[in-house]
Amino acid sequence: MLRDITIGQYFPGDSIIHRLDPRFKIVITLLYIIMLFSGSSYICLAVGAVFTFGAILLSHIPLKMFFKSVKPLIIFLVITAFLNLFLMSTGDVLWEWKFLKITDKGLETSIFMVVRIVLLVMGSSLLTYTTSPITLTDAIERLLSPLKKIKFPVHELAMMMSIALRFIPTLIEETDKIMSAQKARGAEIDTGSFTKRAKNLISILVPLFISAFRRADELATAMECRCYHGGEGRTRLRQLKSAPRDYIALAVTIFFLALVIVLDRIF
Amino acid sequence: MAILETQELTYTYSVGTPFEKTAVDHVSLKIEEGEMVGVMGHTGSGKSTLIQHFNGLLRPTSGKVLLDGKDIWEEKEKIRDVRFKVGLVFQYPEYQIFEETVYKDIAFGPKNMGLDDAEIKRRVYETAHDIGLSEELLERSPFELSGGQKRRVAIAGVMAMEPRVLILDEPTAGLDPAGRDKILSHIKSYHERTKNTILIVSHSMEDIAAFADKILVMSKAKLFCYDETVKVFARADEIAQIGLDVPQITKVFGELRRRGLDFGKEVYTVGYARDLLLKQLKERGASRC
Amino acid sequence: MENIIEIKGLHFAYESDDEEKKPVEVLKGIDLDIKQGEFVAVLGHNGCGKSTLAKHLNAILLPTEGTVTVNGINTKDEEKIFDLRQCAGMVFQNPDNQIVSSVVEEDVAFALENLGVPYEEMRRRVDESLKAVGMYEYRLHSPSQLSGGQKQRVAIAGVIAMQPKCIILDEPTAMLDPQGRKEVLATIHRMNREQGITIVLITHYMNEAADCDRVVVMDKGMVVLDDVPEKVFSQVDKLKAIGLDVPQVTELAWELRKAGCDISPEIISEEECVAAIEKLFAE
User: Count of domains in chain B?
Assistant: First the structure.
C-alpha cells in the first residue's frame, strides 16, 4: 500500500548522533564526502571506513538498515564495477577472452570504486536516518541564510520545503483513496494493457491536482489569518543551539580528513 | 438466499510489522436481497474496512465473502466483475470526479464495463433522473456545480453501473440539512424503483432511523449486532455504552421510562413519537390536549 | 458590556472575471453587533453567505459597502491588519488544510513566529495553549497521526496562542465524526467560559447552536432571525422553509402543539422535553 512509503527514512532516537546540531551534521557530511574523495589508496579508504562505522555504531541504528540503503544502487554499483574491470587496460593481465581482459589494476580500481560509493551512501544515509526532514530543512535554511544578502529567497524555499513535507502524508493518503474510488468504478490501475492503464491514470491525477490546488488555496488563507507575511522579523520555536559535542564532532571529522590527506601524500 | 454473506471474515493490516492491527475480527453476517441497511460504528470500529471487502477492494486475511453464495475470491481474475455488482461510493465522492462533463463522468463506470453507447446513454439518463440531476446539467462541467450537486454526480457514477448492491459511505457528510434530505430521498426512491440492496454508512442516528430496515453495528473490529431497526434501537443503553449515539427522541423516551412513563422501546422517529403520544393522551383523556 | 464586533450595513459582492456579468452579491446589508464574551452561533444553509461573513471578521475579505469593526479596528485599516488578525482568530472547516507544520507544537507556534514573539514567551504560550485544548502530550507528534477532532483542537490552540479576544470558527465540525465533534465543541465552550473569549460559531448543525447564548440565522445574504436559541428554534416553520432543521425535541413539541396540546414551543433540550411530556401526562 502507498501509505507504507516513508519519506526521509528518519529513525527517531536519542543517540549522540541524533542529538548533534543538524547544521553541524550537514557540514560534517560535506567534509566526509570530501574525505572519501581525497584519498586514492586503500589505506585512505580504510580510514574513511573506520570513521563511517564508528559513527554508525554511535547512532544505535542497526547496521542492516545501512545495507538496505545501498540496495537500490546495486545495479549502478555492478555497472561501475564492470566498467572499471574491463576498461582498465594497464597492469598485469589476469584473465583474457577475445577482446575482454581483466587486469590486476582494473580489479583493484573496481573494488576501490564500489567500496567508496558504498561508504558514501551509508554515510549520507546516517544524516537522513538521524535527522528529521523538518530539522534538516531548518538547518539548511540557517546555513544558507548568508545568501539572503544577495536576495536569494532562502526563507521562502525552506517554507516550501517544510509545507511539502507536511503535505506528503496527506497527499499519499488522498491518492490511495482516489485510487480505491476509481477501482470501485472499474478502472484498471494495476492490471490491464498499458494504454488502458495510462488512460486510467488520468482519472487519478485530475482529482489529485484539483484537490492539491484546493488545499493550497485554503492553506494560504489559513496562513494569512495567522499573520504570515514572509520571513521578515520572524522568530522561531525551534532553537538550534550548538553544544561542545558539536565542536568535538567537527574537530574529529577534520582530524580524519587531515589524516586522509596526509596518508594520501605518503602512499 | 442472502445476496451478500461473510463467513468468519478477518482482516489484519500490516501483518508482521509493529503496526499490525486487526480491523475486522471474525465477522459473519448475511444480507438479504432488497434490504436497506444502515451501518454504524465509530471511527476505527472496522466498518470502512468491512465494506471494502464487499466489493473486493480488500482481500480477507482469513474467512470468506460470498456474493450470491459464491466466494468472490474463487476466481481472482473476475474480481472486477464483483465491483460492478457491488457498487461502492466512498466518503466525499465528489473528490473523485475528473471528466469534462457530468455525462462523461457518470459514464465512466458503465464504459469500464464495456457496454455499448446506447446502453451507456440509457443508464446515464436514468440515474441522473433517479438522483435528481436535470438533463441540461449533463453537458456542463462537473466542476461548476454546487457541492451537493457534485456529490450527486459522483453517486450517479456508481449507480449507473446498476450494481445489485449499492454501498454508500457517509453520503451526507458535510452537507447542510436540505442537501442531506435531498440525497437521502433520492436514494430512497432509487431503492423503491430498483428494489436493489442498499447499505448506508452514517454517523447520524436520526438519518439511519429514518430510512433503514435493518442496522449493522460494528464495534472494536467485531460485529456488535445486525438486526431490525426497532430491535437495535431498543438496545439504546448498550449502544450508548459502546460510544455511539441514539436518536435524541429515543433518549427522551428512555428517560421517560426511567421516570415511570413507559411507552415501549421502539420510539426513534419524531412522527412515531407524536402519534404515540397523541394516542396515549386521548386514551387517558388528558385535559391539556 | 462592550461590543467586540460591530457590523454596519455590510454589502459584499464577488467581482466576476467576466466584465459582462454583474458582480454576484453575497451579503446584502448586514447589521450585527457581538458583545465581548458572547457565544454566538451563525446558522444557515450552504451558500447563504455565512462563510463570507466570517471572512470579513478578520479582513480576508473587505466590504464592498459598509463597515466591519473588530475591537475598535476597522478591517479596512491596512496598518493594523496584524493587530486585527491577532485579536480575531479563525478556525476553518478542513483540519488538514490549516495545519502548516509537521510537528504539532511548531504549528501552534506558527502565528507567534510570524509576530516575532521572543522565544521564552513563545515557549510558554505554546505550552499553555496546548494544555488548554488538552493536546499537550501530543506536542511532538506529526499532525498526520492525529484524528480529525485532535487536528481541530491543534488549530484552536494555534489561535489561542495569539491570545485573541474572539475566535471565529467556520464550520469546524462539518468534517468530523461524532466523537471529534464533541471534543471540539467542549473545547470551544471551555475557552468561552474560562478565558472569556468571544466565540462566533458558524455551523449548520442545529444541535450545536442549542447550547449557545445567541443564534443568528442567515438566508440569502441577510440576517433573518437573531435571538436566544429557545426563541429562534420555536419558529420551526420559518427554519424549515429556509432549509434548516430543528432538534428532534423541538420538532416534537411543535408537532404536539400543532395537534392541540398545551406544550411550550421553546423546548431545545432533552431534559425540557422530558419534563414537558411528564407535565402533559400528569393530569
Answer: 2
**C-alpha distance from B95 to closest chain A C-alpha (Å):** 6
Q: Which helix (H) or strand (E) holds A88?
A: none
Q: What is the mean pLDDT of residues A118-136?
A: 89
Contact A207 B98 (CB under 8 A): yes
Query: Do B136 and B263 share a structural domain?
Result: no
According to the model, what pLDDT value does residue A4 have? 40
Write the burial class of residue C163 (CB in 10 Å: 0-12 exposed, 13-18 middle, 19+ buried): middle
Chain A residues close to C126, C-beta within 8 Å? 237
Residues B241, B252 within the same domain: no
Which of B179, B251, B287 lies closest to C46 in CB terms? B179
Same-domain check for residues B256 and B148: no
Name the pTM for this structure. 0.88
Look at C60 and A162 and tell me if their CB atoms are within 8 Å.
Answer: no
For residue A133, give every residue at least 6 positions away whose Cβ sits within 8 Å of its Cβ, in sequence order, or none.
A7, A8, A10, A165, C102
Report the domain count for chain A: 1
Q: Is the pLDDT of residue A65 over 90?
A: no
Q: Which amino acid makes up residue A6?
A: T
Q: Which residues of B touch C249 (CB under 8 A)?
A: 248-249, 252
In a domain, A136, yes or no: yes
| pLDDT higher than 50, residue B133 | yes
Query: So what's the pLDDT on residue A148?
Result: 87
Q: Of residues A194 and C141, which shows the higher confidence score?
A: C141
* pLDDT for residue C145: 86
- The answer to whether B284 faces chain C, any CB pair under 8 Å, is yes
Judge whether A224 lies within some domain: no
**A181 domain-assigned:** no
Confidence bin at A231 (pLDDT 50/70/90): confident
B271/B150 same-domain check: no
Helix (H) or strand (E) holding C160: helix C148-160
pLDDT score of C19 more than 70: no
The answer to whether residue B128 sits within a structural domain is yes
**B207 shares a domain with B253:** no
Q: Are residues B133 and B44 in the same domain?
A: yes
Give residue B147's Cα distance to chain centre. 20
**pLDDT of A62 over the 80 cut:** yes
Question: What cell numbers appear for C180 in the block?
Answer: 471529534
Is residue C39 scored above 80 in pLDDT?
A: yes
pLDDT of residue A98: 73
Q: What is the DSSP letter of B135?
A: G
Domains of chain C, CATH where assigned: 3-246 (3.40.50.300)
Q: How confident is the model at residue B288, as a pLDDT? A: 57
State the residue range of the domain holding B280.
247-284
Residue A5 has pLDDT above 70, yes or no: no
CB contact set of A255 (below 8 Å; sequence gap of 6+): none
Q: Are residues B277 and B228 in the same domain?
A: no
Query: Quick one: pLDDT at residue C283?
Result: 64
Pairwise CB contact (< 8 Å): B278 & C256:
yes
CA-based nearest distance B245→chain C, Å: 8
Query: In this complex, which of C58, C97, C106 lies closest to A237 when CB atoms are compared?
Result: C106
Whether residue B177 sits in one domain with residue B157? yes
Distance to chain A for C222, nearest Cα, Å: 24
Q: Is residue A247 part of a domain?
A: yes
Positive or negative, the CA dihedral C76, C77, C79, C85 is: negative
B36: distance to nearest CA of chain A, Å?
A: 20
C280–B288 C-beta distance less than 8 A = yes
* Residues from chain A contacting residue C142 (CB–CB below 8 Å): 169
User: Is residue B174's pLDDT more than 50?
Assistant: yes
Residue B138: inside a domain: yes
Measured between CB atoms, does A211 come within 8 Å of chain C?
no
What's the grid cell of residue C153?
Answer: 483542537
In a domain, B289, yes or no: no
Q: What is the pLDDT of residue C1?
A: 67
Mutate to test the interface with B, among C252, C256, C257, C264 (most CBs of B within 10 A): C252
Q: Domain holding B152: CATH number?
A: 3.40.50.300
**In A, which residues are within 8 Å of B57 by CB distance?**
180, 183-184
- C-alpha–C-alpha distance, residues B179 and B171, integer Å: 10
